[in-house]
Amino acid sequence: MGKKGLRIGILTAGGDCPGINAAIRGVGKTAILQYGMEVIGISSGFLGLINREYVVLDENQLSGILTVGGTILGTSRENPFKKEKSSLAIDKLELIRKHFRGLELDALVCIGGNGTMRSAAHLYEEGLPVIGIPKTIDNDVWGTDITFGFDSAVWIATEAIDRLHTTANSHKRIMVIEVMGHHAGWLALYSGIAGGGDVILIPEVPFDIDIAARCLKKRAIDKKPYSIVVVAEGIPVPTGETPGRYIARSVKEITGLETRETILGYIQRGGSPSAMDRVLATRFGTSAVDLIMEGRFGEMVNLQGSHIRSIPLREVGGKLRTIPPDLPLLRKTRRMGVCFGNEGL
User: Fold this and answer.
1) What is the mean pLDDT of residues 317-332?
2) Mean pLDDT of all residues in 211-224
3) What is the number of other CB atoms lying within 10 angstroms of the CB of residue 125?
4) Which residues have CB under 8 Å from 225's CB, separation 6+?
5) Do residues 243 and 192 lie in contact, with contact meaning Cβ atoms separated by under 8 Å?
6) Is 80 exceeded by the pLDDT of residue 189?
7) Is the pLDDT of residue 257 over 80?
C-alpha cells in the first residue's frame, strides 16, 4: 500500500466553478480511505496559508459534497508572487513556508486555473512539495485536453441560448448572448454550436463587424425569422462597452434589424456540476493522491485523450490553451453556415 500517516493540505484558488468540491472529495477520500492520510483543508486559497486558516477534514465532511457547486474551503485570488507587490511577496512566501511547516504538511494540492498553476509552480521551485489540479470554465489551462467546470458551463450557456431561441423567434429579433472567456473562446464556440448559434465571435478569430452584420442581414433577406449571435467576453471592441452591448448596438445600426443583448455573467460559474465534470474532477483528485504517494511533486494532473496523466507545473505556468486557427471544428462549423465575422478560416 505504501507510506502511511502522511499529512496533506488542499486549497482552492481563483474563481469558483462547478466540480471543485468533487475534486476535494476525490483527493480527501482517496487520501483517507486508501492511504490513511490526514487531510487539512486550507481556507480561501493561498490566503489561508498566509493567515494560517484551515480545517481538518474527515470522511464525514467529504460526504454529500459531490453534487454541490462552489467550494467548501472558500477561495480567493491572492497571489503571493504578484510582481507589483514584490516587497510583500517575500513576507507572504515566508509565512507560507512557516505555516506549511507548522501544520506539518507533507504535500499541498492546489486546485485552480492558470494563475493558481503558476503560483503552484513557483512554490515548488521554492522547495514545497506541490501537486496541481486544473479547473476553469474557460477550458484555457495549458497542458490538459479539458478542465473540469467547462462541461457544466457549456450546459448552462447552451440552456440559456435555447431559451433565447423562443424569444428571438416570437419577436423576430436578433439575440446577442455574451458568455465568459477572456482570452479563449472555447465556451463561446461549444455553446454556440450546441445552441445553434448563427454567428459566433471568439478572441482567437479576428472579426469585422460589417461582415458579421452582413451575415445577419442575409439571413433576414433569406426569410430566416431570427438569428442568434454568441459572443465571448474577450473579443476586442473599439468602445468601452461590453462586447455584447457593442455587437448588438452595431448590428442594429448597420442592418436596421431589431437586436437585443443578454450578458450571461456569473450564472455560468454557479450551481451543481454536470455528470461529466463530477467524473473528471474525481479522476483528477484521486490521481493527485497517487502522485503524492509516488513522490512526483511539481506536477499537474491532466487529461490526455481518455487517460489521466501528469505534466510538470513549470511547463504549464504562464501559458494559455487557446483555440488554434486550424482547429477542424472551426472549419466544420463554418461549412454548416455559421459565420465567424470574417471571410474565411
Assistant:
1) 93
2) 96
3) 13
4) 169, 172
5) no
6) yes
7) yes
Is residue 238 a contact partner of residue 247, using CB atoms and an 8 Å limit?
Answer: no
Tracing cell 513576507 back to the chain, one arrives at: 91
Q: Which of 16, 138, 151, 277 is catalytic?
A: 138
- Domain holding 232, by residue range, is 152-269
Do the domain assignments include residue 325? Answer: no
Cell of 155: 450546459
Q: Grid cell 490553451 — which residue?
A: 321
Average pLDDT, the chain: 94
Q: Output the CA–CA distances (angstroms, integers) from residue 317 to 168, 265, 305, in the order listed.
A: 42, 26, 21
Which residue's C-alpha cell is 436578433?
A: 174
pLDDT of residue 90: 59
Q: What is the DSSP letter of 272?
A: P
User: Which residues share a beta bridge with 344?
Assistant: none
As a whole number of angstroms, the distance between CA 17 and CA 2 comes to 33
pLDDT score, position 279: 98
CB 76 within 8 A of CB 46: yes
CA 71 to centroid of chain Cα atoms: 14
The CATH number linked to 234 is 3.40.50.460
- As a whole-number percent, the residues of the chain with pLDDT over 70 amount to 96
CA dist 202 → 19, 41, 111 (Å) = 25, 37, 27
Q: Do 16 and 136 reside in the same domain of the chain?
A: yes
Give residue 2's pLDDT: 42
Same domain, 128 and 186: no
Position 329 in a domain: no
In a domain, 288, yes or no: yes
Q: How long, in residues, is the chain?
A: 345
Rg (CA), the chain: 22
Domain count, the chain: 2
Q: pLDDT by residue (tens digit) across 66-104?
A: 999 999 999 999 988 876 545 545 589 999 999 999 999
In this structure, what DSSP letter does residue 271 have? S
- pTM, entire model: 0.94
Q: Catalytic site residue 138?
A: yes
- Is 37 domain-assigned? yes
DSSP class of 323: P
pLDDT digits (tens, 9 = 90+) for 28-55: 999 999 999 999 999 999 999 999 999 9
